User: Which sequence fits this backbone?
């Protein structure tokens, strides 16, 4: 009886082995590396457990923000990947340059083949989440404005934002500056201000200070 049951279980397990893997949401070298890690052919039922496989792949590939894994009977494994989008670069406590995502998470060191046209964050680790929020608010106001940021620097509880062409903003810390960025962007698009680069001190709620940026330098 036990032998017959074992034979049935063995046959069922064999039939449910994964023989085909379908990966979506990612391409190129990362897709190939995930495919190699998942494996081909005779993957056992235990090895293809979606929860365990998800945990292993997220730990192995920091470029993945999320994975959705499911079995499609009888023998297919579906892997849907969500890839992180790098937002900035940050130098950690060990002087390692790391990629940072939109949530302010430093997720891996910058690789030699990475495209590194990203702003530099000069801040502590604990402030990265606030920087991610700041940059998300800039994105919502004007994507071109965010694209022109070259540095974000922590100055006490405030922020210095250096942009292309010498423009610079000083803004207060905190999580509710979206309206301030919107008003600044609208002001600098008005005819009197447009077409020039400005140093802006917008830390006060009552009065802002603007002066023309000097060519080639910051204050």
Assistant:
């Amino acid at each position: 009886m036990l032998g017959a049951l074992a034979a049935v279980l063995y046959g069922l397990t064999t039939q449910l082995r994964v023989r085909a893997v379908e990966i979506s949401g990612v391409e190129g070298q990362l897709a190939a590396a995930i495919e190699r890690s998942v494996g081909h052919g005779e993957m056992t039922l235990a090895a293809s457990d979606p929860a365990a496989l998800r945990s292993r792949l997220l730990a192995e590939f920091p470029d993945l923000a999320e994975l959705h894994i499911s079995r499609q009977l009888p023998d297919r494994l579906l892997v849907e990947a969500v890839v992180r989008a790098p937002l900035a670069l940050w130098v950690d406590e060990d002087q390692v340059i790391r990629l940072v995502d939109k949530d302010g998470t430093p997720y891996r060191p910058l690789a030699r083949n990475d495209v590194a046209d990203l702003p530099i964050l000069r801040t502590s680790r604990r402030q990265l989440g606030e920087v991610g929020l700041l940059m998300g608010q800039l994105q919502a106001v004007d994507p071109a404005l965010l694209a022109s940021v070259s540095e974000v620097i922590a100055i006490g509880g405030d922020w210095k934002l250096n942009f292309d062409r010498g423009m610079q903003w000083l803004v207060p810390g905190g999580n509710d500056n979206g309206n301030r960025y919107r008003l600044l962007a609208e002001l600098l698009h008005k005819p009197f201000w447009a077409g020039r680069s400005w140093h802006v001190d917008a830390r006060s709620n009552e009065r802002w200070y603007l002066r023309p940026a000097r060519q080639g330098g910051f204050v």
User: Anything to note?
Assistant: The chain is about 30% helix and 30% strand. The chain has two domains: 2-83, 88-212. Residues 2-83 form a domain with the Ubiquitin-like (UB roll) fold (CATH 3.10.20.310).
